[in-house]
Structure prediction request, 430 residues.
Amino acid sequence: MAAEVHELVRSDDIETMMLDIGRRARAASRVLATAPAQTKNAALAAMATALRSRTDDILAANEKDRAAAEAKGTTGAFLDRLKLDPARIEGIARGVEDIAALADPVGATIAEWDRPNGLHIERVRTPLGVIGVIFESRPNVTADAGALCLKAGNAVILRPGSESAHSSRAIHACLVAGLEAAGLPGDAIQIVPTTDRAAVGEMLKGLGGNVDVIVPRGGKSLVSRVQTEARVPVFAHLEGICHIYIHAPADLEMARNIVVNAKMRRTGICGAVETVLVDRALADTHLKPIVRALIDAGCEVRGDETVQGVDSRVVAAVADDFGKEFLDAIVAIKVVDGLDAAIDHIATHGSSHTEAIVTDDQAAADAFFARVDSAILLHNASTQFADGGEFGMGAEIGIATGRMHARGPVGVEQLTSFKYRVRGAGQTRP
Prediction:
């Protein structure tokens, strides 16, 4: 009941409460840093068991969140991100088990070498320490972030948005049960017990030096606030303004299938394509079938004059449609004059998240890979593969679009740093 009680905490008490959470997280992180792999894996297995056995509790909590969201008139895409059902809870549990099956990164040797003076030097992985995760509507982030941080030997402080508060707390209870079943401190995975935004401000200050990195998962306004106010390093996850460029020559059926999947499989995820660029050389052969397939699948197409000319159902695109994260069954399509124009468009309007090229021209694909500076690039595959689980990472805590340390899906290896171990035999420096 502590979480419910803290909903009533006065704003002037939040700083004290959050500092205490930070201190307890730091203490737990010291235990996790040296916890054996088998102990961490036992905790993860117990978490998965608890998630399955408490499915009814999680669904009841999720119903509260969904009812509140519907009462506010939120969009269908938002409700889809928020929704849990037995299949999705089973997927969350399997994701935790997949993380348990990964190799333990802590203590792994990244590189080693010998110096002429006989010193042997090793670079080995170490936990980051305490990670703060601030997220909005996706309750599955609770389990993904908690499990990944544990596997990498880190303590984590989770701050869900008010939209998913009940669901996240129900999932968090399963994670704590798993930790305690394995003899690990429950404070290793904490959830902020208030929806007051002042708690976010305290996390961004670093909780008295006890937070080592912040990971924001949410919309542009959240990420912007975190980047502006954070006094600790940030793994930035900006908008998923993902592009697909159809370059000649390209197999029509492949291009059509990839585009429809990339947009319509799940429209509300950050890997959903938002802009499709079609080479002018393919305008007479590929454009109309792709546009028709999208519209027939229930997608609104917003296009330039050439795109409008192939189907009367196309909506005239405005400038802001190119460079917009719709997170809905809406896509912008533009005809471009070749590879250079496509790359220039992506550089101007993209968010450095995920881009794909569909082509049979290997040289064009290689040039696209070399010249486009985004975290994830794909050739002849859907942008919906921009996911840590699909990369074999078990899950992800987010997709970092910055250029420092972690980039792309942030999995267990990206949640570690490293230190050097130097072994000698009495050497002194002249």
User: Anything to note?
Assistant: The domain at 242-385 is CATH 3.40.309.10 (Aldehyde Dehydrogenase; Chain A, domain 2).
